[in-house]
Amino acid sequence: MRTVITFSFLSPYVSENNTISFSLFFFFSQTQEGSSKMICTSSTKQYLISQVPPILILHLKRFQTQRISFRKVFKHVSFPILLDLAPVCTDRKKSRLYALYGVVEHSGTVHGGHYVAYVKVDYI
Q: Residue 39 and residue 62: Cα distance in Å, rounded?
């Protein structure tokens, strides 16, 4: 069965590798299903992008649950100036390039903090 979902933002978790490319690869990687089914079968589920949006917003999930509380992942995540989504697209041979335009950063903890925005400015 194939489901098509229109999107403009993705919310991958911060990965152990500390790169946005690896976080996206992990987000789109195959996952095992079957434990919640009445009849367990060996199956996989994989997300792939068939049509990329004109503007892509990435929201990195930095908060993780730990039993009954939350914790923030403080790892630095590197992001290239140009990001190619081709590896997670149905047509992997065609480049899908996005240029970094802005970053919003949260400093603080799960209980409070501040947001700072950094935006690329083109001077004429």
A: 35
CA 56/CA 9 separation, integer angstroms: 6
Going from N- to C-terminal start, the domains of the chain cover 9-119
Nearest Cα to Cα of residue 87 among 16, 6, 25, 30: 25
Label the pairing between strands 43-45 and 57-58: unpaired
CATH architecture of 9-119: Alpha-Beta Complex (3.90)
pLDDT digits (tens, 9 = 90+) for 37-75: 455 566 666 777 888 888 888 888 777 777 887 777 777
Alpha carbon of 3 to those of 32, 59, 62, 67, 98: distances in Å?
18, 22, 28, 33, 24
